[in-house]
Amino acid sequence: MATCAVHGGCPSDYVAVSIAIFCVILLIVKSTLPFLIHKDKVPSGKGSAFWIPVIQVIASFTFLLSILMSVNFLKYKKKHWWLSCYVWAVWVEGPLGFGLLMSCRIAQAFQLYYVFVKRRLPPIRSHIFLPLILLPWIAGAALIHVKKPLNYRCHMQTYWIIPVVCLHTLYVAVLVMFTGAIRHIEFRFDELRDLWQGILVSASLIGVWVSAYILNEVHDDISWLQVASRFLLLITASILVLVFFSISISQPLLSQISLRKREPLEFKTMGQALGIPDSGLLLQREQAVVIDPNEPLDKLLLNKRFRQSFLAFADSCLAGESVHFFEEVHELGTIPIDDPVRRIYMTRHIINKYIIAGAAMEVNISHRIRQDILTTTDLTHPDLFNNALNELMQLMKTNLAKDYWSSMYFIRFKEEASVRSNGHEMEHTTGYNFSPRLSSVHATDDPFHQDPFSRGSSHDSHDSYP
Question: How far is CA 48 from CA 181, 252, 378, 447, in A?
Fold first, then answer.
C-alpha cells in the first residue's frame, strides 16, 4: 500500500482510470451522436452555439487527464519537461481544465441574463468574453509557476491551498449569481431549470471533489488516505464533467434531437416550436382571394397562399431570403407584446438566421440598418425590423415582383385560385415546388448563441434575381 500510494498503480487507481475513460467515451458519444443522426441540424461552426459545447468537451477531457497525470495514478518517471507537475497540476488542470469548463457555463448564463433580462444582445462576443473571465485562472497559474510551491509529488504547501480552493469557489458563486438573476423568467425550453439542476448536482460533486483535493494535498504522509482521496478525485471529476454537460443544456432547442427525447413532435420552424398558430402551414380551409397585381406587394404577401407561391418562385431564382424574412417577421408580429419571452426567442432566431454577417440566409440590407438591429436596447420592440422590411420590399418590387407576374408560378396560382373559388377545392395542394429552406430550426436558434455583431458592411446580393 505504501509503495503504490507514492508511485501509483494501486488496484483502486486502475478502477478510477477505467471509470474516467468510460465517462470520456460516454461524453463524446452524448455530444456527437445526436448531430450524426440529425445532420441537417448541425450548428454553424462560426458561432458560439457550436464552439462553446466543443470547448466544454475539450475542457472536460483535459481536466480528467490533468488529474490522471498529476496525482500518481500510473507508474511513470517525470523525466521530460512536459511531464512536469507545473504543466499538468497547474496549467492543464486550472486554466485549461476546471477553469475553462466553468467559464463556458458562466458565458452561457451571462448570455441568458442579457437576452432575457436586459432584452438586448450581449455587448461582448463570446470569443472575447471567454478569455476575459479565464484571466484569473491564467494569472493564478502564472503566479504558482513562478513561486514553485509544489513538491516532487505535485502537492502544494498548505498555505497555497486556501487561495486555490477560493478560486474554484468563486467561479461556482458567479455561475449561481447569474442564474439567480434570471430566476423570474418563464423560459419556453427549460433553460433555467436545466441550469439550476446542473448547478445543484455539480455543486454537490464539486464539494466532494474539493474535500478530496484538500485531503490529498494536506495528508500526503498517510498512505491509505492518499489512495482513497485520489480515487475520489478522479471519480467525482468524471461524473462531474458528464453531468455538467448533460443536464445543463447549452442549446435549448436541440433538446428535440437529444438522445433523451423531450418532445413528442419535431418542429420544422421556430414558429411551431413557439406555438404560433398555423406557423409554416398552408391550410386547405383558407379562403381563395382574387390577387390584383396592382396592389402593393407588402399587402399581397399577407395572404398565405400568395406568399407561398411567391416564395416558391423566389427560391427557384435563388433569391428567397427576403420572402422568408418577411414571413418570419410576420409571425413575430402575431406574438402579443405582453409575451416578451416568446418574442425574444423569435427575434433572436430572425437575427441569427437573417441579420448577422455570414448568416445562413443573410438578407441584403444596409450596414446602418443592420447595426441598428444588432445594437437595439429592446429585442421585444414591435418595430425592430420595420426599416429592414422596407428596404427588402423595395428590392423585391424591383427584382422579383415584375418577373413573378409573367411566371408559371403566378399562372398556376391563378388556376388553383379559380378552382377553389368555384367550390372544387383541390384534394392535394402540391402545385408549388416548396423549398426545403423554409424556416428550419437550426442550433443557432438558441439564446446562448452569440457573435451577433457584423465585422463590417455586408451588402451582398442575396436577393438579386439572376
Answer: 22, 14, 22, 11
Q: Quick: pLDDT tens for 169-186.
A: 899 889 888 888 887 777
User: In the numeric block, which cell numbers belong to residue 264?
Assistant: 413528442
Q: Max Cα separation, the chain?
A: 94
Confidence of residue 273 (pLDDT cuts 50, 70, 90): confident
**Hey, is 188 helix, strand or coil?**
coil
d(CA 103, CA 57): 13
What does the alpha-carbon distance between residue 150 and residue 91 come to, in Å, rounded to a whole number?
13
Predicted confidence (pLDDT) per residue in 221-249, tens digit: 788 888 888 899 999 999 888 877 765 44
59/98 Cα distance (integer angstroms):
7
Of the candidates 313, 320, 376, the residue with the CA atom closest to the CA atom of residue 347: 376
Q: What is the DSSP-derived secondary structure letter of residue 41?
A: G
Structural contact between residues 54 and 104, judged by C-beta atoms closer than 8 angstroms: no
Lowest mean pLDDT among 275-279, 370-374, 414-418, 455-459: 455-459
pLDDT in tens, 384-413: 999 999 999 999 988 888 889 889 998 888
Quote the cell numbers at residue 192: 433555467
The phi-psi region of residue 19 (left if phi > 0; otherwise alpha if psi is between -120 and 50; otherwise beta) is alpha
